[in-house]
Amino acid sequence: MTLFKLQPLLLIVFFISLVISVSSVEAQEIDNVDSAFQEARALAFDGNRSEARSLAYAILEISPDYHDVRILIARTYSWDGKYMDARRELDYVLKKQPNHRDALSAAIDNEIWSENPDRAVEIAKNATRFYPTDEPLNLKRAEAHIANNEEREANRILNLIADINPSSSEAQTLRKSLLTSGQKYTLTLSYTGDRFSEIFDPQHKSYVQLSRRTPYGSIIGRVNYSHRFETNGIQPEIDFYPSLIDGWYGYLNFGYTTSSIYPQYRAGAELYKNFPKGFEASAGFRYLNFERGSVTIYTGSLSKYWRSWFFTLRPYFTPNDAGTSRSINASARYYFDGAENYVTLRGGLGFSPEERRFQDVDGDVFIVRSDFVGIDFLKTLRYNLGVFGSFDLANQEFTFDPGNFNRIYTMNAGVQFKF
Prior knowledge:
It is built from 9 helices and 14 strands.
């Protein structure tokens, strides 16, 4: 065979070899980005979301249409409260592939979390057109309708899920949530008893409280009753937790009474801010006005959500003629099943005159030092009924008996009814 005749054959062999070589390189690149994607996922789920995004964007430089990587980026943005950034990444995926199931799921979550329920409903409807029998997507659609105050439509979707899977525990939980979402009022009854190792007779406290959820925040009216120093007293007060701009909310309090064992006036204000990575901080004050004078207490808090835990530190600073008294309280709360099933471990050092136990009939506070530990719980019995309780053990020192401590046992029990 002549060289002239071999040339076409050689060209064909060369071309096939080149194709195989390029395919091999591309396959190797895909293997590399897959491994990098798993690393980015691990970083994201370990809480290192900024590092996860950096690695994920590097992967997109190699493979810009690796949709799972872009969805991971969007998820991390949503978790950090950067909803517009998440929306941008998810819109890119859905324009390329409108029926991408994971992108649709992430987009529904992002719009619910960003308090944009209209858009969440729109995306959820589109998702269930592509996947009409997909239980998780239908559950998200029901959640979107609930967030959009469309209870009838949410019930209809839950009924469809029941037809698909009658034993769906998630649907049953969401149906309970739907029942509670229409409950704007909570009636609370509480009783607290104090027993002392010496000096004082037992003291009794109780209150009746009615709270109302509004679009502007929760409003709480409360009537307190106390029996101490052989004297009865009643003090009404009101709390308001206004919803402010995104990530901010407040606390306002005012109370008034003519009963001698309470401050004549009490007021308070505090501003709260949510930060990334589950942190929350606040700063505010409490004001107590007695017949013989007044007290201003400066306080704040630093809190952290971690998995099912909520940790809080709260100091108190009370200026007076002798200087500034200081105290600090700490708590660790563990949530079992939602926001209304938890156990809290608490402790504190120092004394704050906001404590109502030791104001005598003239309004004097005669505590020098107070240390305590305690535990409390809240348990939902059914969708509209809950019980709570606590036990505290405290050591108290008094101005009239310095160096000696009175042990105090405090028990509290109560019930909540929602309607």
